[in-house]
Write a structure and sequence with these properties.
By secondary structure, this protein is of the alpha+beta class. The chain folds into two domains: 165 residues, no CATH class; 117 residues, no CATH class. The protein is 49% helix and 13% strand. The chain contains 14 helices and eight strands. Strands 1, 2, 3, 4, 5, 6, 7 and 8 form an eight-stranded mixed beta sheet that branches. Strand 3 and strand 4 form a beta hairpin. The relative contact order is 0.11. The N terminus is likely disordered.
Length: 341
Amino acid sequence: MAKKTNNSGGVAGFNFQDMAALYLFLDNVDEVQSFEVEGKEDVVLTWNDGTNSFIQAKETQNPYDTFNKKYVIDALRVLSQDVVDYGLENIKSEVLLTNSNYLFGKRAGQEFANAPHRKYSSSSLPPRMLKKLEEFNRTLDHSEIDFAKLKVMKIEYSGDDDETKLSELEKKVRKFMDTAHINLSKYDSLLKSMLFLVYRSAEDSKKSISKKDFASYTAATLLIGTSQIERFLTLFNIDFENEDYIRSQYSEFLSPKAFDFSVTSKVNMLLFDYGKQNHGLSRDDKARDFVNKNYEKICAPLGIDIENDVRNKDVAKFILWLIVTNNSDFSNIKEALNYED
């Protein structure tokens, strides 16, 4: 039986289609500008040319059993309606995605059972599978599906624990981390934050996740809980009584907003102007002097109130210092996503 709910990744409600959305986004990150979960479709990819791929993601708890053809027919019905609603010219592809090894029945072939990941265009499907697909499509009244744009795909998603279920997604996340020069020790925290980002987007009215959203969220995730706080406390000679406050409060303001274009561009402009006027200082002295002179300028966009609580000045300084000292890391993330402001 096809289902949509389980508890993968430690996020209540996280499910197969969420995993698939992340997988497909990371797998096509150079050409995709955004993705969406539980919006127009189970999953929608929006490509750089403005066209969309509509994905029907159908999970089974028993991937070695024959898949219920009712769910395949239901998926085809929705994909047919997509053509009516959005126009064939706006559709790059329509995808029937599953974790089943026998989407068209065991007699139709073993191809999906032979690898954790399989993808076929309808024209490349083994003949017995194509015959079944055409048979299912004929059960629809006036199907609008263009088989030239129809793809059938399997991503492995089964097992008794999260590590097993997410093994295919793990490959894509680790490849992204390697490209972005992110230390692999951050894998667990980064994966959990990615899963939560997708889960939250499916619950919110704003369902689309752009590369900008993904880049900002990733950067913020890597810096929350950062070990750099000890270096900051020493470099800025922070009062002992304010240390605990900084530790407890900075993550509240170190949200993806801290890496939004409006903030990072402002910081980079300030850095450029500062660099023209200050020569001869050491790296640490420059960073400390720049932060002390400019921290107030990021308070408003980040919602940091320094007028009513002076302790927040040190919080603002820490966040600005993190943005400055980790600027190259954020650039690496954007490059790995093929994203430019």
